[in-house]
């Protein structure tokens, strides 16, 4: 099967396996950058990524920003962060990254607006597509945002802990003579979450979801499809129980 026919162009680049172990590492971690940028990446990550306390924050504040395509003022970098392909990552002013955050720009552009908070253990991974965060977005602990297409999250949206957001990534699987892993990935539709939304803990947001402005999602919901502004959504699959500002039917 011609996987490249069905798979986005970035996939062919990321999945190619030729070359030495060093070349594979460079594609995965610093990206295809020149020798000086590669050496700078290695020195900074090795020397400063895991230093605890105030000294670690200070050293990362000084030496991490040049890694990125763009990095604003007053950014806080936590301990133990994993940073992949930073030349594809743009960070606004006043962003705070807690410890053990993973930022991966391997297959797209990762853009983080001003004053965002990305809490401990969160993962923002551009596998084959972009992730765009607006201003004042709050990403809680252990949230995973995984983009095979495009994820957009609007200003002042709050995503509670342990949520999983995935754009694209659905594999072809009907041909039983070929392993699913080798059948390619369908073209995704992306995920769009507009501003002033609140997504409850442990919610899963699937490809093709569009949350309009001001939606509230109950914990552990499963979302797919379009939802109107100010909807309150619960359950598996997610359903609208009322709009914000309407009287509740609960006694």
Integer count of domains: 2
Number of strands: 24
Low-pLDDT segments: 1-15
Order of helical and strand elements: HHHHHEEEEEEEEEEEEEEEEEEEEEEEE
Number of contiguous helices: 5
Q: Order of strands across the biggest sheet?
A: 2-5-8-11-14-17-20-23-24
Task: Return the structural class.
Answer: alpha/beta
Taken from the alpha-carbon principal axes, the silhouette is globular
State which percent range the strand residues make up: 25-35%
Average pLDDT, rounded to a whole number, is: 91
Task: Walk me through this protein's architecture.
The protein is of the alpha/beta class. It has two domains: 22-147; 166-243, Hexapeptide repeat proteins (UDP N-Acetylglucosamine Acyltransferase, domain 1). 18% of the residues lie in helices and 27% in strands. The chain has helices at 3-6, 9-15, 21-28, 35-48, 53-63; strands spanning 70-71, 76-77, 82-84, 89-91, 96-97, 102-104, 110-112, 117-118, 123-126, 130-133, 138-139, 144-147, 150-153, 158-159, 164-167, 191-193, 198-199, 204-205, 210-211, 216-217, 222-223, 226-227, 231-234, 239-243. A nine-stranded mixed sheet has the order 2-5-8-11-14-17-20-23-24. Strands 1-4-7-10-13-16-19-22 form an eight-stranded parallel sheet, with no helix packed on it. A hairpin with a 4-residue loop joins strand 23 and strand 24. The chain is globular. The N and C termini lie far apart (58 Å).
């Amino acid at each position: 099967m011609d996987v490249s026919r069905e798979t986005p162009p970035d996939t062919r680049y990321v999945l190619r396996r030729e070359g030495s172990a060093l070349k594979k590492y460079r594609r995965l971690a610093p990206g295809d950058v020149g020798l000086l940028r590669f050496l700078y990446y290695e020195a900074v990550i090795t020397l400063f990524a895991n230093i605890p306390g105030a000294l670690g924050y200070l050293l990362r504040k000084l030496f991490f920003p040049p890694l990125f395509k763009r990095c604003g003022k007053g950014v806080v970098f936590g301990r133990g962060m994993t940073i992949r392909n930073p030349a594809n990552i743009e960070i606004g002013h006043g962003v705070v990254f807690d410890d053990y955050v993973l930022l991966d720009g391997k297959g797209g552009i990762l853009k983080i607006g001003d004053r965002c908070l990305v809490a401990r253990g969160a993962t923002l991974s551009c596998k084959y597509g972009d992730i765009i965060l607006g201003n004042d977005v709050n990403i809680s602990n252990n949230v995973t945002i995984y983009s095979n297409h495009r994820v957009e999250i609007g200003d002042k949206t709050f995503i509670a802990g342990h949520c999983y957001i995935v754009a694209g990534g659905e594999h072809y699987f009907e041909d039983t003579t070929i392993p699913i892993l080798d059948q390619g990935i369908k073209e995704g539709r992306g995920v769009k979450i507009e501003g002033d939304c609140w997504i409850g803990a442990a919610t899963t947001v699937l490809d093709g979801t569009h949350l309009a402005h001001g939606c509230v999602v109950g914990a552990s919901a499963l979302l797919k499809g379009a939802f109107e502004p100010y909807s309150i959504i619960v359950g598996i699959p997610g359903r609208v129980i009322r709009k914000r500002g309407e009287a509740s039917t609960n006694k």
